[in-house]
Amino acid sequence: MNILKKIFDGIWTNNPVLIVLLGFCPTLAVSTSLKDAIGMGFSALFVLIGSNLVISALRKFTPEKMRIPVFIIVIATFVTIVDLLLYAYFFPLHKSLGVFIPLIVVNCIVFGRAEAFASKNGMMDSLWDGIGMGLGFTLTISVLASIREILGNGTLMGISLFGQSYSPVIIAILPPGAFLTLGLMLGGMNRINMAIDEKKKAKEKAEKEKAKQLKASVANG
Amino acid sequence: MKDNIMQVVKLFIVCVIAAAVLAWVYGFTKAPIEKSKMSETMDAIKKVVSGMTDDMTIKDTLLSVKEDTSKIQAFIILNPDSSVYAYAVKTVTNLGYGGGIVIMLGLDKNFAITGVEPLEHKETPGLGTKMTKEEFKVQFIGKSLDNFNFKVVKDGGDIVAITAATITSRAVGDAITRGITYAEENFKVSSDTMVIDSAAIDTMKSEEIK
Fold it and tell me: pTM of the entire structure?
């Protein structure tokens, strides 16, 4: 239950990109094709899990004043490992992710979770937090990339969807398209959350009203 | 004071462990990385040089470039009897819309193009990236400096540019011109040609014997 809640927290309630608004640089830059986005997402997920675990394990050992350098070393180590592993075993993916892998070092999501969560919580909690946040990031960037790839290139995962006659909306795949799509996604997310909030409030209000009526009827009776 | 020293010691320990882990990962990924780098180049050569068979050898050389100090990587493909079958030149240009473009160029022994394969580029997706498509590349096949002007039609040349990506087309022409020119300068066999690389010298000798 707690685990599911943690993961849902990362994917929706505290989505690192759409709610906390962190990690925009890779989200915007690596969302031109779904394949790259999934690669980026899982690379970040791996780094998040690794850095969260190690930073959480080191939280009693790490001196308060030295915590930032320690975080950076741990994160950079994991990023370099991912970089080397991708280079060695997933060469085409490494080529298309290019400079964005080293940039995971400064992905604020990884650093943010290290500072806000892993340095204060146990290893198991940090592990699930890393998985939840990583999945949230992966899903968000994948949705964004799907929209951009379908509109801007007429393909999904490199497979042509509409045939030759489709003329792609090129702006969707150019940098401005990334901002526009992300903006619409942010708006959509807020709208849904507002609707949920309103429903909740309406429900609470109705319950209060009911309680009042009950009280009134009791007093009258 | 003691606290400060402890902090430094602890940070040092973290650094040492991180370095050790990285050294270990680097150790076992080194070989596969070299391999994938090599196989990328080999795949590109096989794409641009048609009719290559397994008993041919590929020789790796560097071409000297007169105008600047950079070197262009070239490959000589030799027949089993060590006569030249074809050349592959990894040529570059920095005139692309997004900066540098690296192209693998296949040349037969008379320096006519047998294939063009862009390897690295940062062109606009959907526009400049069309240079990787067959429709654009096919116009270069069989062309050489003698029978083709590697400039876009707009500049008075023969290259049919990609719609809305003239700059990219121009850059491809520039890279090809450069590749062929340097290949001819270095490999065209005549008694007074300066040959820079030992591999190229070998090739020259075998040509003479033939």
Answer: 0.71
